[in-house]
Input
Amino acid sequence: MIPVSKDQTIRFTPATLANMADPPVFLFRPATTRDAYAFQGRLIEEGLRAHDMDQLRARQRAAIREHFTPEEADEAIPQLQAVWDSLDQNVPIDAETMKTMVAFVDSLTAADAPLRKMLAQNEAFSRDAPRLALGLLLKGWEHLPSLRFRRLQGVMPIEVADELAIALMCREHAAAEAGIEGIVPGSAFDEICTHALNSMSLTMEERGKSKPLSSSPSDPNGSTTAGGTAASSSEKSEAGSGEATPPTPSPESIEP
Output
């Protein structure tokens, strides 16, 4: 492996901006192992944690046991597991079955506070963790005169990342209105955040100093502070009230 230096600069332009005459260029330094450890520390400081799909599903099973009778739970859990198995194996699921299970999971989420908290933590992690990685690795930018690059104690504050997201969105909308092809408003900021986050993850994996970021140690509640799989759209639901209602289709109709 070739050692990296913080003095090196990696120039990165989001693909969605490539057709612009003067696309913004973002200047990154290579991620080092120390950066990856600092990143993990910042995740802990910010209280960011993520729950992977297995953890979410385990909570859903527990919630079914808590909110329904034993007989209802014994019927609902195998049906839900059958859908999960089909999704994991890329087996097609008929539309009516999927609609029924999505409605069931939504109602279960509305009735279960721990599940809602897990999804809210995943949402916060997905929003802020990439910004933290960006703050550690970004050295500046070119062709973006509307925003001044700033650092505080060697790190770009998350507030500047928010300002950058807005500035890029404005450039994207202006480019789209000018008829430039390939512009997808909102995607440029996602691309530079993904670049930073991937650099951080690869550093941890390649150097073998720790487990990959997506496999970091769990906290006492079973969540992770540096990775995890975001919930699927069927598992996200806004907080609600009332009891969840178990699915009613026959066992034959729920099988994939």
In short: Helices lie at 33-45, 53-67, 70-88, 95-111, 113-137, 158-177, 187-207, 251-254. Confidence is low (pLDDT under 50) at residues 209-222, 224-256. The chain has eight helices and three strands.
